[in-house]
Amino acid sequence: MDMANVFKALADPNRMRLLDRLHANNGQTLSELCKDLDMSRQAITKHLILLERANLLVTIWRGREKLHYLNPVPIAEIYERWIGKYERHQLRMLHDLKRALEGEHHG
Amino acid sequence: MDKPKVVYVTYINNTPEKVWNALLDGEMTKLYWGHSRNVSDWKVGSPWRHEDYADPSLVDVAGKVVESSPPRRLVLTWGKPADAGNPAKHSRVTFEIEPFFDAVKLTVIHDEFEPGFDITAIAQGWPGILSSLKTLMETGRPMSMTTRRWAGPPN
Prior knowledge:
The structure holds two protein chains of two kinds.
Chain A: H1 3-10, H2 13-24, H3 30-34, H4 41-53, E1 57-62, E2 65-70, H5 73-82, H6 85-105
Antiparallel strand pairs in A: 1-2
Helix pairs in contact in A: 1-4
Chain B: E1 6-12, H1 16-24, H2 26-32, E2 36-39, E3 47-52, E4 59-69, E5 73-78, E6 91-100, E7 103-111, H3 120-139
């Protein structure tokens, strides 16, 4: 699993949207993931295969249902590679500040 | 049956036996798993605990061995040491180790949380531990974030 695959898999708004949906509600079936999305089931399946190849997505079977999970392990590797332990605290503060400002902005 | 809350996978360029040992060997876990070691005789039904490497009186997690099939599958219950007598408060962790071409696919499923359990800390912990385990087994060096004891979430 090299990092280039991970970045390629992330570099698509539809795939990011699918990961966002799993982040909000982990462990969904394909039908649940397809709900309210303006993409064909085939297109979604293709995106899911790409995400699974990059190991950003994991599937397990529970009875007759195939459940999809967001797998953040490759992202943890990217995070550790470029964000040293000394920078983390400062970035966290910036992130919190950004969230606070955005929160104010949107009421 | 409730579906698992989190499922993690990492691919490690090593053998199933070595990955299995890395989950149990204190000299390895102190490097990638928050400076702790896992202590048990690893027989089904036996207790296990996750204690600080330097100070064994600091135990963050304790539970029982549910299943142990080296080097493929290890199932543990997972709880606070104070809840040892209360299985309802324990969640469950399953490690599955499968050969994957010349490497190993390690899957971690954490499920059976008590209703309302806040999994934030657990969901933040596993990805770092597993990616550090992979890095350690492939390069001989763990990630810096996992070599020291974690303070844990505020109560």
